[in-house]
Design brief:
The complex is a heterodimer of chains A (208) and B (207). Chain A is mainly α. Chain A has a domain of 141 residues: Orthogonal Bundle (Tetracycline Repressor, domain 2), CATH 1.10.357.10. The radius of gyration of chain A is 19 Å and the shape is elongated. Chain B is mainly alpha-helical. The longest helix of chain B has 26 residues. Chain B has 2 domains: 62 residues, Arc Repressor Mutant, subunit A, CATH 1.10.10; 123 residues, Tetracycline Repressor, domain 2 (Orthogonal Bundle), CATH 1.10.357. In chain B, helix 5 runs parallel beside helix 8 and helix 6 packs antiparallel against helix 10. The chains are: A mainly alpha (208), B mainly alpha (207). Chains A and B meet through helix 6, helix 7 and helix 8 of A and helix 7, helix 8, helix 9 and helix 10 of B.
Chain lengths: 208, 207
């Protein structure tokens, strides 16, 4: 890649990274192009050059964030290749979907902002639907692989995946607002109980 | 001109209903006092007489919407013959295609995340909702219709599942995902409560 192209790509990514942080911190509606530009160390006009509209920037920022999170997830899975079982991989995936402190919590803030805006913006709704579809396939594929390898009992994979993702969202939002009724570890245990029962696994959650 | 003549005919419920309507249409962040005032054909200062801030107006509108919901809810509950029918109706009324309250509920989350009054509001509304679910479950368990465990824990499971499903419904094609969401929720309830819910359709009287 030519130096100019590299610089251009870097600027773009820096803008996206800055946008992601701003969304998580300020919320989608409060996000200002000028602030993103400042955080990214570029001019507002450069931001406008790379992203035609505010909506376009927000949509791409969200995709960007989930891409990165996906890379982290895949990275973790590779590390888990030494893990003895699909059950362990599944447990790691459940953990990835709960707002544990740090990057996961930050990602969760983005999810919440996305839900809010998606209801009223066709562009963001398309983004949200796309990201959901990827999450669904990610989880469903692992469950299906476990069934194929004979480790899990057969079941309606799609239904189970939908249910698990919905439970994770419902618990996650409550954990995120620090609802005392939903400690994260309890939520994790409940989701695991559901998976364990459907897939014929040990009800004891594999240790994090 | 003093706002006084206008507010003489204003009643809090009217204002709050209008506010809830506007929020539903524009979203919490885009709702200004001026928008609600316009809906009611009064001047913004007239509204500010009642509410100190936009935050307060929104909070009151949400609470009022929930109050109206529970009034109707309590009313409708009595029209069913058994706990299974009540539970079935509860699920339907939450996931239903034209879901007003789920939209407001989802709107509330980002604000609740940032603490303050709306966080407390979310918390008390959620607990009330879970309490309503729990009492139907408890009633069903006492009447021998349901098995299963602690009603409060089950209510939390149901509420969480319903919220997660509501998001999916909001994101996708409503027709398909409403049916699917209903199916998934009922399947979970049937398993957790060791009962059959779909047969309870017969226990429902026509609306």
């Amino acid at each position: 890649m030519s130096p100019a192209a590299t610089t251009e790509r870097n600027a773009r990514e820096q803008i996206l990274d800055a946008a992601v942080e701003r969304i998580a911190t300020d919320g989608i509606d409060e996000v200002r192009i000028a602030r993103i530009a400042m955080d990214a160390g570029v001019s507002s006009s450069l931001v406008h050059y790379h992203f035609e509209t505010r909506e376009a920037l927000l949509a791409e920022a969200l995709e960007h964030s989930f891409e990165l999170a996906g890379d982290v997830r895949i990275g973790e899975e590779e590390a888990e290749e030494d893990a003895p079982s699909h059950a362990h991989r599944l447990a790691a995936m459940v953990d990835q979907c709960l707002p544990y402190q740090g990057t996961l919590e930050r990602d969760w803030m983005l999810w919440v902002e996305l839900w809010l805006r998606a209801a009223r913006s066709p562009e963001l709704r398309a983004t949200a639907a796309r990201l959901y579809e990827r999450m669904h396939r990610w989880l469903a594929d692992e469950i299906a692989a476990g069934i194929a390898d004979g480790e899990f009992s057969d079941c309606d994979v799609d239904a189970l995946t939908d249910r698990v993702l919905a439970m994770l969202d419902g618990f996650g939002i409550r954990a995120l607002v620090r609802d005392p009724a939903v400690p994260l570890d309890w939520a994790r245990g409940e989701v695991w109980r559901m998976l364990a029962r459907e897939l014929g696994m040990d009800a004891e959650t594999p240790l994090r | 001109m003093s706002p006084r003549p206008e507010i003489a005919h204003l009643r809090r419920p009217q204002i709050l209903t209008a506010a809830a309507e506007v929020i539903r249409e524009r979203g919490v962040n885009r709702t200004r006092i001026a928008d609600v005032a316009e809906r009611m054909n009064v001047s913004p200062p007239a509204l500010l007489y009642y509410f100190e801030s936009k935050q307060e107006l929104l909070r009151e509108a949400l609470i009022f919407a929930e109050e109206c919901f529970y009034e109707e809810f309590a009313d409708r509950l009595t029209s069913f013959e058994n706990a299974r029918a009540r539970l079935l109706w509860l699920v339907d009324s939450y996931i239903a295609a034209d879901d007003y309250d789920a939209v407001l509920w989802i709107e509330l989350w980002p604000h609740a995340l940032r603490g303050g009054d709306l966080a407390r509001t979310r918390d008390s509304l959620d607990r009330r909702w879970r309490g309503a679910i729990a009492s139907i479950i408890r009633e069903g368990q006492e009447g021998g219709e349901f098995g299963g465990g602690d009603p409060d824990e089950l209510a939390l499971l149901v509420a969480s599942l319903l919220d997660g499903l509501a998001i999916q419904v909001a994101l996708e094609d409503r027709e398909i995902s409403y049916r699917r969401a209903r199916q998934l929720c009922l399947a979970m309830l049937e398993r957790e409560l060791d009962c059959t819910l779909t047969a309870a359709e017969e226990g429902r009287r026509a609306a």
